[in-house]
Amino acid sequence: xxxxxxxxxxxxxxxxxxxxxxxxxxxxxxxxxxxxxxxxxxxxxxxxxxxxxxxxxxxxxxxxxxxxxxxxxxxxxxxxxxxxxxxxxxxxxxxxxxxxxxxxxxxxxxxxxxxxxxxxxxxxxxxxxxxxxxxxxxxxxxxxxxxxxxxxxxxxxxxxxxxxxxxxxxxxxxxxxxxxxxxxxxxxxxxxxxxxxxxxxxxxxxxxxxxxxxxxxxxxxxxxxxxxxxxxxxxxxxxxxxxxxxxxxxxxxxxxxxxxxxxxxxxxxxxxxxxxxxxxxxx
Length: 283
Description:
- The chain is built from eleven helices and nine strands.
- By secondary structure, it is α/β, with parallel strands linked by helices.
- It has two domains: 1-84 and 163-227, 3-Layer(aba) Sandwich (Rossmann fold); 97-158.
- The relative contact order is 0.15.
- Mean pLDDT is 83; it is low at 262-283.
- Residues 260-283 are annotated as: Disordered.
């Protein structure tokens, strides 16, 4: 039996005051996939991510996440729903006065009904899962490298056995080697556990290394969504600039040379353009 979509956004609208960030936006996130969201500055990528999490109010449309509509839930039910996902913020957002152990243990102590021994075991397991050593548990965030901060943040986001993981620019601020290591870690943990990932990213290398599908935001909505090779073929100014600039072409040519990005026939390009046509606006 086919699993339901993890997230369904139907005719979503978000706004700040009179300014609409999104209008008539439709998007489905499949269970178990890694969906990357890209778009130009001001297109509302992080706002869309926060709307999924309930941190930004939805002005129009319907959101269904893990089979539930948050707008119809009681406060207690909303809290229970939010415990089913984890978040990795752009800079890690670790508590600076807490050790690595205490940062990872924080959600377990806040939301769980666990003994001290159970928390210790779970933190040790999460440290191992993200490739950190036991000795790292007693370090403060100020003593960690950028890559280690992202690993600790990932361990904390997954502490409650998250079904959905939200990532906001996870490789931002990392050097190319650390970013590649994080991509490999995300792929491995995702393969081991099978949770759903929604991430905002501008990193072309990360998109190619991790994303099952890519959704492109433009003109207040999702312009197109699909595998990387299909999305990069869509004839739209932003897509052409993003994927076919000097760096984008270099990456795409490298992927083609290794067989990781098959060339689409011309019919597929027009087909994807048709699939990206927006739904008619509601009266």
